[in-house]
Specification:
It is a single chain. This protein starts with a helix and ends with a helix. The protein has three helices and no strands. It is mainly alpha-helical. Helix content is 75%, strand content 0%.
């Protein structure tokens, strides 16, 4: 991730009141969860993906 983007976001965050920061924080959590869900969905589309890890356990 670009340091420029982080610095710009930091500048904006520092200008917000506490109530607005909670909104931003909650939105960031939502984005993280959405990214995890999207990644999981992509992996689950791989044929046999769910079966491969299980085959190596106790085999």
């Amino acid at each position: 991730m670009s340091n420029d983007i982080l610095q710009e976001a930091d500048q904006h965050l520092r200008r917000l009141y506490s109530e607005k920061l909670w909104v931003v924080s909650n939105f960031m959590v939502y984005l993280e969860e959405k990214e995890e869900e999207d990644s999981t969905a992509l992996l689950l589309k791989i044929p046999g993906f769910e079966q491969k890890p299980r085959e190596g356990v106790g085999g």
